[in-house]
Design brief:
eight-stranded mixed β-sheet, 371 residues, alpha/beta
Length: 371
């Protein structure tokens, strides 16, 4: 069955020709009427995927304690901006602020800014943070990073960058040819390649090893990463990116999820989540180009272990009934394990820090990114 968004995409292709993969992905996720994130809460058992904050309170609590330690390292500025990009249901921020109550001055200094375009998720975030607001927290919403007011900032981005549109280029042996979405002979949406090689792709692939025929180069939309890097370089602070991805290379990672199962990215436009693995090397380079220092990427399991996941798990299990204790142990394995369906190795953590900040908490000086 053709979705309303697919009908619009077909009309665009008929009028303008095949569209880049990045434009297709952007329309599927962010179309103002039919975009995936504009029309639904995609999280949880009734949605299409589950993020780490929804698995266990421990994730947000540990990130909250990391933020407190980072704020202290920054010199405890007051006020400062505590920013989250793509905050989902607000679960991570709510858990982080609860843990941060151990240092009351942190909460008093924090001005909370949520960068969110989905009206549905903004409602969920307001509900999750209602208690914090009643307790005096100052919460604001913005559509773009650029709209967050000036000032030093700690910026959290959990599963944000994987949803940025990616353009794709395929190496044919004669050059990089851009992959586009068109309409096939049977009337279905289909992938194809530009006949002429791209003039931009060679520069974008310059930091990668020589490709084999058929290799795919993915290039993430650069606007939000550059805006984040410029802001941190100008105003001071740190950004923490947590996402699934890799530290550079070739590969087609565009995928669709619907009802917790992989789906065809060209089917059900606007009705399935589209993501791509984050190229952490490119993200680090964007930060370095702006004058920041990049640390990592670390595997999520290692990062959480350094923050004290094992001790927090033990503490919760001691106070829990047997059934609840088993659920806590299962959640810990999902967050930090390396088996099928576990996040500890697939998910990575990268910090982008103002050079005056030094080495961020949970990182080692030897883990500064170098290409």
């Amino acid at each position: 069955m053709t979705t309303p968004l697919e009908e619009e995409i077909r009309l665009l292709i008929a009028a303008e020709g095949p569209m880049p993969v990045g434009r297709y992905m952007g329309l599927c996720l962010g179309h103002p009427r039919h975009g995936y994130y504009m029309t639904r809460d995609p999280l949880g058992a009734q949605g299409d995927f589950t993020t780490a904050p929804e698995i266990s309170q421990m994730f947000g609590e540990l990130i909250g304690l990391w933020a407190v330690a980072t704020w202290q390292q920054m010199g405890a500025p007051a006020p400062f901006r505590l920013v989250e990009l793509g905050p989902g249901r607000g679960t991570l921020m709510a858990d982080a602020l609860r843990a941060a109550r151990l240092v009351p001055a942190f909460g008093e200094a924090a001005r909370i800014h949520l960068v969110e375009t989905s009206p549905v998720l903004r409602v969920a975030q307001a509900r999750a943070l209602a208690h914090e607001e009643r307790a005096g927290a100052r919460v604001s919403w913005h559509a773009r990073i650029e709209d967050v007011p000036a000032g030093p900032a700690i910026v959290l981005a959990n599963e944000f960058f994987d949803a940025l549109p990616v353009d794709q280029y395929v190496w044919t042996g004669a050059g990089w040819h851009e992959r586009k979405v068109g309409v096939g002979a049977q009337g279905q949406l289909t992938f194809g390649l530009d006949a002429a090689p791209s003039r931009m792709a060679p520069a974008l692939a310059a930091h990668l090893p020589p490709p084999a025929p058929g290799a795919v180069l993915e290039v993430m939309e650069s606007g939000p990463p550059r805006a984040l890097a410029a802001r941190l370089a100008t105003e001071g602070g740190i950004g923490l990116a947590i996402d699934y991805g890799h530290a550079g290379g070739h590969g087609d990672t565009l995928q669709a999820l619907k009802a917790h199962r992989f789906a065809d990215p060209l089917a059900d436009a606007g009705e399935a989540d589209l993501t791509a693995h984050v190229d952490f090397a490119r993200l680090a380079l964007v930060g370095q180009e702006a004058g920041l220092k990049a640390f990592g990427p670390l595997e999520q399991g290692d990062f959480l272990a350094r923050l004290g996941l094992a001790a927090r798990t033990d503490r919760l299990m001691r106070d829990a009934a047997p059934e609840a204790a088993a659920a806590i142990a299962t959640a810990t394995r999902r967050l930090a394990g390396t088996g099928d369906g576990e996040m500890g190795r697939l998910f990575k953590v990268l910090a982008l820090a103002h050079p005056h900040l030094g080495t961020p908490p949970a990182f080692d000086p030897s883990e500064e990114f170098n290409r």
